[in-house]
Amino acid sequence: MSLGMETEKKWYVIHTYSGYENKVKANLERKIHSMGMEDKIFNVIVPVEEEIEKKNGKEKVVQRKIFPGYVLLEMIVDERSWYIVRNTPGVTGFVGSNTKPVPLTDEEAKRILKAMGMDEQGEESTEDKKLVDLDIEIGDKVNIKSGAFENFVATITEIDYSKNKIKGVVDMFGRETAVECGFDQIEKI
């Protein structure tokens, strides 16, 4: 199969088994890192929006998937990047024709990312930034609740309140591995 060579990064949609979106995201992020594909696959996003759920008289913010069964990827499609994504467990295929993935238009990508409070690069938008007040400091241990390092314990090395992110290290296979997580992905131990 010849996909042709794309040189521009665009947003694509992949279809996953329902309920496997976060697992596919984690698997892809691990593959991107382990196979050195950071220069071809830039962002893996499960489109979610926050909702307030009332349960037993208490309000709780929950994340609801906007498009169940779909994951967004910002990538440059070539033979290798297509193959890696296509052969990730839980991925049933790219949205588009059988032979060539069809990217989202810039307007579609912008609209979806804006609905999630992100800008066109998949970064959190500073427009309606929710300030998160976490009782954490450098050296604290946190449990990672989602993402490629879900269920790992990280030791915080940096806190970036302007981006609501932390940097830390996790012990993986007896080695320290650097990680970056959003405040919404961690909980203090």
Automatic annotation (TrEMBL):
HAMAP family cross-referenced by the UniProt entry: NusG
Family annotation (PANTHER family): RHO-INTERACTING TRANSCRIPTION TERMINATION FACTOR NUSG, TRANSCRIPTION TERMINATION_ANTITERMINATION PROTEIN NUSG
SMART domains cross-referenced by the UniProt entry: KOW, NGN
Function in brief: Participates in transcription elongation, termination and antitermination.
Name of a matching Pfam family: NusG
Domain KOW: 135-162
Keyword Transmembrane helix: no
GO cellular component, as recorded: cytosol
Domain of life: Bacteria
Family the entry assigns: Belongs to the NusG family.
The species this protein was found in: Megamonas hypermegale
Identification of the protein by name: Transcription termination/antitermination protein NusG
An individual GO BP term: DNA-templated transcription termination
Keywords: Transcription, Transcription antitermination, Transcription regulation, Transcription termination
NusG-like N-terminal domain location: 8-116
